[in-house]
Amino acid sequence: MAASKFITPPPLSERISKEEEFFAKNFYLSYSGLNKLLYSPALFYSHYVLKQRDDSYDQNMVEGSLIHCLLLDKENFDDKFVLSPADTPSDSQRDILDSLYIHYKSLEDDSREELHDFSGAVLDLLEDRNLYQSMKESTRIDKMINETTNAYWEYLKKAEGKLIIDQDTYDFARSVVDKITTNSVVMDTMGFFGDEMNGISCTNEVELMMEADVSDYPFGFRGFVDNLVIDKENRIIRINDLKKTSKTLSTFPDSIEYFNYWAQAALYTILIEDAFLSLPIYDGWSTEFRFIVVDSQMQIAPIKVSSETMAQWKEKLKDALLKASYHFEKRNFEAPYEFLTDKELVI
Hints:
The protein contains 15 helices and 8 strands. The chain is of the alpha/beta class.
């Protein structure tokens, strides 16, 4: 997990208020939340309780999210990503445009959208910065309102709340998706060849929630399954999770342990069992879990988790959830479980 910069906590009174608000509601623990809690309870507390969100994304995570979107959720690409302009204005021009955008965001009941609509404000900002003042007004406007600055202005309006990607990253992700869609083994595994004739159907981006059982845990569970395949003939539900790794396929088992992907696999399997296998129509059915792995060399392969391994991961998940429960019940996120329960940790 990537390190996050330190965020100054709010005053004690505000922390207490946010804490009471957090614990007054039902919380649904996701894999990412559990992973954050296992990695650093203090980071979990800051992110989920205090709502001080400082999510950072390295290049591998950006590529993985982009590949995921282009393959499984392409209709929402524009809601999640924005391409950075190929040709950017100078530093001084960007400073003007960034300041103008802050002004634009503060306006209410103002229908102006295009950069040329703000030519007066642009001239004022240029005067404040003493920029291009030796030029005629029309020349100053041409300097600041042109094809390059218009593209940057549109980028500023689209970029807020989205992941910013460059053309090279987009082209790489697009190439990976093209390779996946021409890989018959992977496409068959993910159910893209399914129809009524062969009794196979697939759904992408499946949100699942499981209510809290207070006798077991002080929270419920939730997750987004990348790809879910219903195989009626074999009475199997296949759970497929797309993963982008910066290493190679052969070393992916190391990533499973390092990033706690085993917890995600076990949690998603439990969610599917609760949502599907608990229903009479799925009596006698079973589940299979696979990672669909894309590595740094654009090698792609499905990696199946055996039933024996999944049973071990479920037991391991129980232990992790007991630690998570301790933090919730004690309302103590100051240190990892081991440091809170042992007077002195011995290694």
